[in-house]
Amino acid sequence: MDSWLVVGLGNPGPKYAGNRHNVGAMVVAELARRGGVTLSRHKTRASAGSVRLGTAPGGAPGPPAIVAVPSSYMNESGGPVSGLLQYYSCPTDRLVVVHDELDIPFGQVRLKRGGGEGGHNGLRSISNSLGTRDYLRVRVGIGRPPGRMDAADFVLRDFSPTDRKELPFLLDDAADAVEMLADSGLTSAQQRFHAP
Q: One MF term from GO for this chain (predicted)?
């Protein structure tokens, strides 16, 4: 069975760990926790681990996957992602990028294949490195900045105290979305997570 590569985007270091921009990395941390693995430093400028996605207690093992977080800054994510794909001989159609999304309300998860980057520097870097936008994305809603706050400032701030209370549920949903995408396909995952 071919392995998946699931990459969660974020910025490295404790200064950024709680930022909205790091929600993709938080989702991968949840997938690693579910899989019982600790991400290890990898020569592709990333931390990575091998898991089975969506293995229910007492159930059959789910699809195999490498879960990873680039150790580069967000706007240089393309190099590590390209390196991971090559290292693991993973085709682009089995790449899932998990990232924050301003245009989706906080608490919602959406999935798609391809499309634009919407000003997201991590996605732009990946698309440029791969020479294609045609990869799967799990888009984790963080909502729009309040008032006239600049979007760049908003994504580099920690979640508000109110949002932090709901964050575990959002990370859980996004991790479920990745698992369902790998196990049941994009259409089934969209039908579940795009329901009103």
A: peptidyl-tRNA hydrolase activity
